[in-house]
Amino acid sequence: MDEGAKRMEEGLNIPLDDEVLEKQETINSVDSNIEHKIAEHDDEQPALVKQKTKRVATLDAFRGLTIVIMILVDKAGGVYPRIDHAPWDGCTLADFVMPFFLFIVGVAIALALKKIHKIKYAVKKIMLRTLKLLFWGILLQALIETFTTKLRPTTLSHGRLAIFTAYKWQWFGGFVAFLIYMITTFTLYVPDWSFVDHANGDEPKRYTVICGMRGHIGPACNAVGYVDRQVWGVNHFYSHPVWRHLKECTFSSPGEGPLREDAPSWCHAPFEPEGLLSSISAIISGTIGIHYGHVLIHFKGHLDRLKPWVSMGFLLLILAIILQFTDAIPINKQLYSISYVCFTAGVAGLVFSGLYILIDVWGLRTPFLFLEWIGMNSMLVFVMAAEGIFAAFVNGWYYENPNNSLGHWIKKHVFVNVWNSERVGTLLYVIFAEITFWGVVAGVLHKLKIYWKL
């Protein structure tokens, strides 16, 4: 055995002897029964002491990484179009943000509900948090997890598919979401439709998009947009969808620019990238995250966890690549296509597994403390940095001209002028004045044990 393999085996610390495995299973079974008895006793009597649960460092680091990516693409995507959202088919760095968050929510749901035995209390907890998050997809996947709580096993049976059969009802919920999305996307008839463009020009102009087809997955006549137009109305959509960066719409592609004179009518149309049908598809991303959380709960050995995590990640990637390169179902964030779900969830699973190896298996936690700090105070960093609340407050104080503010002065004189480049200066400003700054703030707040939670 070479040194690397020996180190991996020692780091994973997996018992290989069958007798040891049998003893461990017996101990786990006894421990589970004891925990179940204690839980029943706790249900009968009020809890006097609130027990602290151990945080999962890998999950915090992954959450922090996702926040960092979000800040980077939001603040620097304008000067680096290649990392901004793909205009239509394809996947860029920005397109990983939402599915990564959904994956994180799924893992967190599995961990948060593993010791909750009262459905009424669990439903109340989920409803309150969901109302705060205002995201319908989280509500559905969380309720699927909660209403099947009585069916959760304390121990798993033998077999490679035991983790799937044990949570078959959760997977059934995800499969129903898959069927609804696929059937609606490829069978719903999309008629011609029209809209009034209020954004361009001095006078509103009416455009008509010719459709009359089924199964179209281009910008003009897809079922995702049609469902949203019927439910919400076209006037409630995002008026500058990212598809305006397509070559058919602008000569500035893949960046943002004025629309071509010969641009198709749909280039002027609004579109909602997080609509009703795409939210149903997004449930699958959360379901996959919940599965990773279930593996984390039931399997205690590092290798026992990594095997299903890595294998599922690669399987999802392979499926997505096949769907993409056969032109069956292209990877598309705007439609939240099934190939996009598989591709991004597969990448999320592999990144999560990689962080788990580095942090939990090899013990390299110090290099990732920066991400952990951000992950533990993710809501604060999201609101203040990603949503630009703090920057808006700082730049709200200016002299004579809005550009004469502290934030604009730092960006121009400390970064852009020094490097004599708008692109490089903007990137460095985001890295140091946004990401690094808030990472340090999150670290200080962590030392003070101050966290912003929902």
Question: What keywords describe this structure?
Answer:
single chain, 454 residues, mainly alpha, two-stranded antiparallel ribbon, two-stranded antiparallel sheet, 17 helices, 59% helix, membrane, HGSNAT_cat, Heparan-alpha-glucosaminide N-acetyltransferase catalytic domain-containing protein
Question: Can you give a write-up of this model?
Answer:
By secondary structure, the chain is mostly helical. 59% of the residues lie in helices and 3% in strands. The model is unreliable at 1-53, 132-141 and 148-152 (pLDDT under 50). InterPro entries: HGSNAT_cat (IPR012429).
Briefly, what is this?
This is Heparan-alpha-glucosaminide N-acetyltransferase catalytic domain-containing protein. This protein has 454 residues and is mainly alpha-helical.
